[in-house]
Design brief:
Blueprint (H helix, E strand, L loop, with lengths): L1 E4 L6 E4 L8 H14 L1 E4 L6 H8 L3 E3 L16 E4 L26 E8 L7 E5 H6 L3 H7 L3 E4 L4 E3 L1 E3 L6 E3 L6 E4 L4 H15 L5 E4 L6 E5 L3 E5 L9 E12 H7 L1
Parallel strand pairs: 2-3
Antiparallel strand pairs: 1-2, 3-14, 4-16, 5-16, 6-14, 6-16, 7-13, 7-15, 8-9, 8-12, 10-11
Length: 257
């Protein structure tokens, strides 16, 4: 297994791995790489839906989703997103977010497998929340230290959040689904959300992933946020996403053992 750091300062591209035959040593190496780099891009996999689920459990126990049109029959662990209606959920996540932010304990990891790739459009952007916090001026860090964001469903999270395993401070905010900031007026909340949005999108801070056949991408949702980009209806893209459920990441399971 060989790791190639991405040019953005976070994330690695990995080759020399067949996830269908990952042993304990491979599992440990992948988990360590995710903790260190926040984002794994594993190319050239050939996985059935059930094999994708098995590969995803290298990182923890998975969430399940209710059946719906366009989803994979009999595989509730997969949440399918697509560019065309009837093939999966469309037009989702076109703003900076981490999956599962609506939970009191956020979803720790998201994993995508590329099933169908477009000729153009439909890239996914990723940004490093640890570095986003580190790049804030000291006075701003002081100003946000005790701020809490309110998700539209009522869940609350600290804007300056500590990673549940590493303890590293990150800048955590769902741009599209945050209803307000504690102690702020609606106008002040909008200004704060817009400022965070600009900061996460700052020059040089993002990695743009162009989907290729067999891509298997793993994101630490507390360390890294992501954002979908538009795709034309004439393009064909299908991504099968799995998510590690709250309290069941590999670091949680190791503590419980």
């Amino acid at each position: 297994m060989t790791l190639h750091p991405l040019s953005t300062g976070f994330g690695v591209e990995i080759d020399g791995v067949d996830l269908r035959h990952a042993d304990a040593a491979t599992r440990a190496s992948l988990q360590a790489a995710l903790l260190e780099h926040g984002l794994l891009v594993i190319r050239g996999q050939e996985l059935t839906p059930r094999e994708q689920v098995a590969a995803s459990t290298l990182f923890g126990e998975l969430e399940t989703f209710p059946p719906n049109a366009g989803q994979v029959p009999g595989v509730p662990e997969i949440f399918r997103v697509a560019s065309r209606s009837g093939e999966g959920y469309v037009d989702v996540g076109r703003y900076w977010h981490s999956d599962g932010s609506f939970r009191d304990v956020p979803t720790p990891m998201s994993i995508w497998y590329s099933v169908a790739q477009p000729e153009r459009d439909g890239d996914t952007l990723f940004t490093d929340l640890r570095e986003a916090y580190a790049q804030l001026p000291a006075p701003v860090k002081e100003d946000i230290e005790d701020l809490v964001s309110f998700h539209r469903n009522g869940a609350t999270h600290r804007l300056a959040m500590d990673h549940p395993h590493t303890g590293e401070r990150v800048l955590y905010l769902n741009i599209g689904l945050t209803s307000g900031i504690g102690g702020f007026t609606p106008a002040q909340s909008r200004m704060m959300i817009e400022a965070v949005d600009r900061h996460l999108s700052r020059e040089g801070a993002t990695y743009r992933h162009h989907w290729q056949p067999g891509d298997f991408v793993v994101a630490d949702n507390i360390r890294v946020a992501h954002r979908a980009t538009p795709i034309g209806r004439d393009q064909h893209r299908i991504l099968d996403r799995t998510t590690v459920r709250s309290g069941a990441a590999f670091w949680d399971l190791a503590q419980a053992a």
